[in-house]
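tool=predict chain=A
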Amino acid sequence: MVVGLMILVTLFLWIRSKNNNLAYASVLAHFLLLSVALYFLFRAITFNVDHPMASEEISLRVGVSGSIWAVSMICLLIGLIKFSKVNRVY
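tool=predict ok
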């Protein structure tokens, strides 16, 4: 629910400003990828431990979650760099 609110606020600000398209798209991609990473992490935490290969499956899901999280952090970094650039008008 909180992530959905963050996505809506980002879309609202993007539509309102109509500039910095790459920055807003990167932040939006960060929120979406973070949601996917948290989904995989939640599935790893709630996995049935009675499964014969539970340890391997949980490790795989945590690894996938971590990889997606790393990509989302790169998207956030790109967005922050693009937002911090100063446009000078002479």
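The mean pLDDT is 90. The CA atoms of residues 25 and 79 lie 8 Å apart.
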